[in-house]
Design brief:
Mean pLDDT: 89
Number of helices: 4
Oligomer: single chain
Distance between the termini: 34 Å
Order of helices and strands: HHHH
Number of domains: 1
Length: 109
């Protein structure tokens, strides 16, 4: 039942496509963490650097999310394309970007 509603919401035609989409989300999540680690190391962003700050944990995780989130978005398009789901993930990205304030870049005709 839940999958049927999800397929309708996302405009997905088959269970196979839905499985592929779930696989892409899983791979992208793991890949963004793996690719993000060297980036965070390069800019020397480590939890130990925030230990002396009263809200250090919060600050560290906020900065980390702000760095890894755009990486995840780009990887989602790349991995989705490798699985022949570019159209779905491009439309998904446009919805996300519109919701976080980039609506003016995606004007519909």
């Amino acid at each position: 039942m839940y999958y049927k509603r999800l397929k309708e919401k996302w405009g997905v035609s088959s269970n196979f496509q839905l499985v592929i989409i779930f696989i892409v989300f899983g791979i992208t999540g793991s890949l963004s963490v793996q690719v993000g680690k060297p980036i965070l190391d390069f800019i020397n962003l480590h939890p130990k650097n925030f230990e002396s700050i009263p809200i250090g944990d919060f600050l560290y995780w906020t900065i980390r999310v702000l760095i890894v989130f755009p990486l995840y978005q780009v990887l989602l398009i790349i991995v989705g394309t490798l699985f022949f789901q570019f159209r779905f993930f491009w439309n998904f990205e446009k919805k996300i970007l519109k919701k976080i304030g980039f609506k003016r870049f995606f004007k519909e005709p």
